[in-house]
Design a protein that fits this description.
The protein is an alpha+beta fold. The chain is built from 3 helices and 12 strands, in the order ααββββββββββββα. It has a 6-stranded antiparallel barrel. A 6-stranded antiparallel barrel has the order 6-7-8-11-10-9.
Length: 307
C-alpha cells in the first residue's frame, strides 16, 4: 500500500544533521567554565551545592572508610601493644635496678648510723619537704625569680631550699601567707656554697647576669676541671649535703689576676619546671649557736684550765 506524500518524515538522519561546530562548542563550554569559576570565587554560588553534596555523601564516605579505618586501627593496635610490652620490660628492668639500689642505700644508711653511734656523732639530719607548684615568674625582668603556691600557712620558712628531680633550683627569699618568692640560682644576686664531688674542694657558686652560674674567688691553680660535678656541701645550715647544683663547663685561668674564671651549667634548669619540692632549712633542726658571751666565758674557762 502506498504511503501518502504528506506523511513522509523529511527530517535528515542524525548523521547528516548540521549543528554548531566543534570549535563553537569548545568556546562556549570554556567561557561557561570560566564564568562559573569566577562567579564561584567572587559570589560563592556553588557553596550551598557543595555543602549539600558533602552532607549527602558523608555517610557513604564513612561506610567506605570502615575497612580502611579497621585496617589502620589493627596496625596501630599491634604497634601499640608491642610498644607497651617493650615499655613494660624496660620498666620492670628499671624497677629491679631501683630495688637493688634501694637495698644498697638502706644497708649503707644502717652502716652509717652504726658508725655514727660508734664514734659518738649525731644522726644525719633528714630534711623535711613539701610539694609546691610554680604559679608565675616575677615581674622584674632583670631578676630570675618565681612565685610558688605555698607560704607561711603551709609552714614554708624563709631561706627554704627549693629543688626538683634534677637538683637545686633556688631559695625562698620572701614569704607570704599563701605564696612565697623563690630566687633561682641563676639570678645575678644568688650565691650557694658548693663542694666538688671529685676532690672535695669547697667554693661558692654565683648567678650571672646572663642567667648562668660561675665560681668566683677561686685560685688560678685550683684543681677544677670541665665536667666536675658540684654539690651542696651542707655546712651553711641551709641546704642538705649532696644535692646536685651545677657542672663545670669551662675553666679560664687568668695569669694576670691570679684567679680562675669558671663557667657552670646549672643541674636543674628552671625553664619548663612546674612542680617543685620545698625543703626545710637545716638551721631549723641544728642546735642553736652559742651566744657571744657564752663563747667568751667558755674560752676563758678553757684558758684557765690550760694554766
Amino acid at each position: 500500500m502506498a504511503t501518502p506524500l504528506g506523511t513522509l518524515d523529511r527530517t535528515p538522519p542524525p548523521f547528516f544533521r548540521q549543528g554548531p561546530s566543534a570549535l563553537t562548542k569548545l568556546t562556549f563550554c570554556s567561557a561557561l567554565a570560566i564564568f562559573l569559576m569566577v562567579a564561584d570565587a567572587r559570589f560563592k554560588l556553588t557553596q550551598p551545592l557543595r555543602t549539600m553534596v558533602a552532607t549527602v555523601l558523608h555517610p557513604v564516605e564513612r561506610v567506605l572508610r570502615v575497612p580502611i579505618d579497621g585496617w589502620l586501627g589493627a596496625g596501630r593496635y599491634a604497634m601499640g601493644l608491642q610498644h607497651a610490652v617493650s615499655a613494660e620490660d624496660k620498666a620492670r628492668a628499671a624497677l629491679a635496678r631501683q630495688s637493688e639500689r634501694a637495698s644498697r642505700v638502706e644497708q649503707l644508711e644502717a652502716e652509717n648510723n652504726r658508725l655514727r653511734a660508734l664514734l659518738g656523732l649525731r644522726t644525719a639530719i633528714t630534711a623535711r619537704s613539701q610539694p609546691a607548684e610554680i604559679l608565675y615568674e616575677a615581674s622584674d625582668p632583670f631578676s630570675r625569680k618565681v612565685v610558688i603556691d605555698r607560704g607561711t600557712t603551709q609552714g614554708v620558712a624563709l631561706a627554704s631550699p627549693v629543688i626538683n628531680e634534677s637538683g637545686v633550683l633556688g631559695q625562698v627569699t620572701r614569704v607570704y601567707p599563701l605564696s612565697a618568692e623563690v630566687t633561682l640560682l641563676t639570678d645575678k644576686d644568688a650565691a650557694i656554697p658548693v663542694l666538688n664531688a671529685r676532690n672535695q674542694l669547697r667554693s661558692a657558686a654565683f648567678g650571672t647576669a646572663g642567667a648562668g652560674m660561675e665560681l668566683r674567688f677561686l685560685a688560678g691553680n685550683a684543681d677544677v676541671q670541665p665536667g666536675d660535678v658540684l654539690q651542696t656541701s651542707g655546712v651553711d645550715g641551709i641546704y642538705p649535703p649532696g644535692l646536685a647544683v651545677a657542672k663545670v663547663l669551662t675553666v679560664d685561668r687568668k695569669v694576670d689576676t691570679g684567679f680562675a674564671r669558671v663557667a657552670l651549667a646549672p643541674a636543674a634548669s628552671p625553664d619548663g619546671v612546674r612542680h617543685v619540692l620545698v625543703l626545710e632549712p637545716l638551721s631549723v633542726q641544728l642546735p642553736p649557736r652559742p651566744e657571744p658571751a657564752a663563747e667568751a666565758a667558755h674560752g676563758k674557762l678553757a684558758r684557765g684550765g690550760k694554766k
